[in-house]
Amino acid sequence: xxxxxxxxxxxxxxxxxxxxxxxxxxxxxxxxxxxxxxxxxxxxxxxxxxxxxxxxxxxxxxxxxxxxxxxxxxxxxxxxxxxxxxxxxxxxxxxxxxxxxxxxxxxxxxxxxxxxxxxxxxxxxxxxxxxxxxxxx
Length: 137
Known about the structure:
The protein is α+β, with helices and mostly antiparallel strands. It has helices at residues 10-17, 21-30, 47-61, 66-99; strands at 36-37, 43-44, 104-108, 114-117, 129-133. It starts with 9 loop residues before the first helix and ends with a strand.
């Protein structure tokens, strides 16, 4: 089980978040927190969903509108996705560094992909970032 496992029925999730179940239904309709559904179409909330409901309550208490809250959550989710992608690229780069003999040269393209370059090859565009590590002697 992890934080994304659908565990809680709407009444329990509402209790954990300190909200009324009808508020959770409204947030689901608005797309702020969309829990998973069972085969019988009942809502099942995860710990991540409950944390997001608490964040919505906190932002609302600070005077942020529902549209503002939606945008904040959207941006937070995007940041999380980007952090995951960076970790993925760092692992790929580390694997490449460990498995390549000799000089190691890479370019990061505009879309964020990592491209290995042959020794003596230049990056194709001025917008690419080149990472170089000399041979350990």
